From TrEMBL:
Residues 120-213 are annotated as: Disordered. This is Tetratricopeptide repeat protein. Signal peptide: none annotated. SUPFAM superfamilies: TPR-like. The keyword Cell cycle does not apply. Coiled coil: none annotated.
Length: 213
């Protein structure tokens, strides 16, 4: 009786262990399928279940890392951060015991992103050169406009000076007092001259009278 009971317990344990192994293997297989179909969130969930049941499972751990890095590389690619995306893909190549399909895809994707990165760098350099050239052209244009405007203003000033009539200087008027003084002086001079002439005439008459006598 005891032997039968012990045998039954062994069988039950074997069945439980077998079912657990089947479940773990099933999760591992489905996790790999999700990984290779690029359904990274679902792959991470399934592979995490396998690692919870068997932390030493190298295949599950390797594919879990592949899923994480492929997911990160995809995110960096969308943000045009090709340098970080390439680093994530490059690290997948060094992961052993993972999906061989994902490893091949990571190599091809890395080559693709390196080409995109080179193109992006060339375009950025070209934009920089164009901006520098455009800035120089704008400066030259501005300098030319300034020179032209200065020359135009100078010509306009010269034309205005030529066409502008010469302004007559106003006649300076002497103060009234000076005019009166000059008038009085002139009158005095005239009176003195008349006196001198009268005296001369009188003297001449006297001389004539003496001669007659």
């Amino acid at each position: 009786m005891k032997k039968k009971l012990l045998l039954m317990l062994v069988l039950i344990a074997a069945l439980i262990g077998g079912c657990s192994k089947l479940s773990k293997d099933s999760s591992l297989i489905r996790g790999q399928e999700k990984l290779e179909s690029h359904q990274y969130d679902e792959a991470l969930t399934l592979l995490s279940q396998v690692l919870d049941a068997d932390p030493e499972n190298e295949s599950a751990r390797a594919m879990y890392m592949q899923a994480r890095k492929m997911q990160s590389a995809e995110k960096y690619e969308k943000n045009h951060d090709y340098d970080k995306a390439i680093k994530e893909l490059d690290s997948i190549v060094n992961i052993n015991n993972g999906s061989k399909k994902i490893k091949r895809e990571s190599v091809n994707k890395k080559d693709e992103l390196e080409k995109l990165q080179q193109t992006a760098e060339k375009e950025a350099l070209q934009r920089k050169e164009n901006a520098k050239k455009s800035s120089k052209e704008d400066m030259n244009k501005l300098e030319s406009e300034i020179i032209y405007n200065n020359k135009k203003n100078e010509e306009t000033k010269q034309e205005e000076n030529i066409q502008k009539p010469t302004e007559e200087k106003p006649v300076e008027q002497l103060p009234t007092e000076n005019v009166e003084e000059n008038t009085e002086t002139s009158t005095d001079v005239q009176s003195n001259n008349e006196k001198v002439e009268t005296s001369a005439d009188a003297q001449s008459n006297n001389e004539n009278s003496e001669v007659l006598n």
